[in-house]
Specification:
The chain is mostly helical. Helices cover 75% and strands 0% of the residues. The mean pLDDT is 85.
Amino acid sequence: MRARTTAFILGAVLVFYLVGCVWRGVLALYTAVDKGSVTAGVLGVAVLIFGFIGSWVLYREIRFGFATERLAKALDDDETPGGGLRYEEIDGLPRSPGGRVDRAAADALFARRKAETEATPEDWRCWYRLAAAYYAAKDSSRARAAMRHAVKLEFEAQPGTAQPSSV
């Protein structure tokens, strides 16, 4: 819950900042039209583009967060043998006194999860657990890619739903 609250607060601050950017862009465009300043016009367009790109990125991140949260809940509710999130595997990894997961243990967990995913590449649950293993091994870029793939597979598995554009 702490991560979600932090994300909400940072998202609200970013929205405030992006609204300010868009407002400044509009004011710069108004100045460009009113005073005939090409520089103000170029700056206004650039700031507007920055504001819209920032809004798009924020939207995608929020959508990704909700999708991964939905998958975590579905996986957590999974009662089948061998299913579920398997918290105990990551929680049981040896840690340093500072709380960091031992790299060798994380790599061993990653190897097991990778083999499981290669055995059933169409199962979003395996991809989700692989993403958790990547995260435990401190490989966040691959963790996000695996999680995106899990979201995509889960959407494909649901009949009658549209394919996510790119979560």
